Known about the structure:
The chain has 12 helices and 12 strands.
Amino acid sequence: MQFYKILENATEREIEKDEALFLFHYANDWEKLWQLFKTASTVRDQQLGKLFKLKAFALSTNKGCKTSPPCRYCGQASSNFKFFKTIASLEEVAESVKIAENIGFKGVQLGGGCSGNKGAEAVDDTRIVKELTSLNVFVNYGADMSEENILKLKELGIGSIGCSFETINEEIFKKIKPGESLKERKRVAELIDKHGVGLASGIMIGVGETYEDRVEHIFYLKRFQNLSLIYISGFFPIPGTPMGNQLPATSVDIAKTMAITRLVHRDIDLDGSFGRDEQLQLWIMAGANHRIIHGMFEPVSKVEQFRRFRGEVRKIGENFVFINILPIYVNMVKEMGLRPDLNEN
Ligand code: SF4
């Protein structure tokens, strides 16, 4: 199979499974990687235009994560890096999304862990956001979502609901997420899709999976009619967690997976990894067209911690702040010759 022939054909049509696997193995030096990225960017520009969607991430009122035992890569599995120490109130969520809308955002993601309440907080949060703003809402609580709440969210006009498998390899899933079930995640994703709601789903790389597993995963997602967003999350070791000493997924491996995903899912939104935003311009080269900006709505305690991105800070109640780091992203997108697009559609 010819590497350059596959890429040439990929500008015209979706690649096949064996071609995707070949690209994973064969794109193994800077020259071939560059050709792969160029093809993925060409497909993105042809299918979606030279636009790059930016949305704000806001915490939800979700009462933390009850997954037990916690996922072995997650901060919840470390005594030092636990999330959800400060839970936002409905008023604080409302205030943060109003600020996001005033800045110009049209889309917002509300997220948190799996509280065990099957999406009840997502319904309350979405209701208040819809009452106070015209923002499009995306919520993400993994498998912690009932059919009843999917229907309530649909009625509230939700844009999309997240349900990520992380890996399609059952054995690896059990190893890294011992408190969760891949079967259950698949069931919830199917429910979201069945009810005609946009589905957002993630592929985690660097957790022991093979290229074959990644290809299976990329093609498994094709079964969802309403798939709206795929994000490629690269494993990053958090100190104190059981996986804290493993190597992180590299920037090139994340970008390579992103580019091959773009050659299959040609007109779907494609995003990157949580906490790795300094790689955004590489992701754009690899065919990404979408970023949820994390780190804008934060507990006060986090503001003074080392932060890569800084911006104007506004206080929300006693416990939270809104940090406007949008200009940093606008700059990164423009430098790549794309137009920042805050309009969710
Ligand atoms: S479900 Fe999410 S928040 Fe909870 S332990 Fe797993 S990765 Fe962490």
